[in-house]
Design a protein that fits this description.
The protein has 93 residues and is an all-beta fold. Helix content is 0%, strand content 60%.
Length: 93
C-alpha cells in the first residue's frame, strides 16, 4: 500500500531485468546531494515478471533520478495524491 495524500505522491519506475538489484537514487530537483534510494525488485504481475523501484511518500515536486552516481532522468514530476508511473526500459534494452 502506498501512502498518498495532499502534497504527497509516489513514483513507480519500471526498468529492464538487467537492473534487477540495482539501487536507483532520487533527489529533489536542484538539490543533488539530498538523495535517497530504492532497489529495483522483480514483481510478478499477471504471471509475468516486471522490474521496478517504488518511491513512496514523496513530497509533490520535481525530481532527478540517478544510477551509478550519474543522472538518469531530470525533471520527473511527482504530483500529490497520485502515483507517477514512468519507464526507463528503452534506455537499457
Amino acid at each position: 500500500m502506498l501512502d498518498l495524500g495532499p502534497g504527497v505522491g509516489a513514483l513507480v519506475l519500471h526498468t529492464g531485468a538487467e537492473l534487477h538489484g540495482s539501487e536507483i537514487e532520487i533527489s529533489p530537483a536542484g538539490r543533488d546531494s539530498e538523495r535517497s534510494h530504492k532497489q529495483v525488485h522483480e514483481r510478478p504481475v499477471a504471471g509475468r515478471p516486471l522490474y521496478a523501484a517504488v518511491f513512496d511518500r514523496l513530497p509533490a515536486g520535481e525530481y532527478t533520478l540517478w544510477l551509478d552516481d550519474r543522472p538518469l532522468r531530470h525533471d520527473v514530476a511527482v504530483a500529490g495524491e497520485a502515483v507517477t508511473d514512468i519507464s526507463i526500459q528503452e534506455a537499457y534494452t
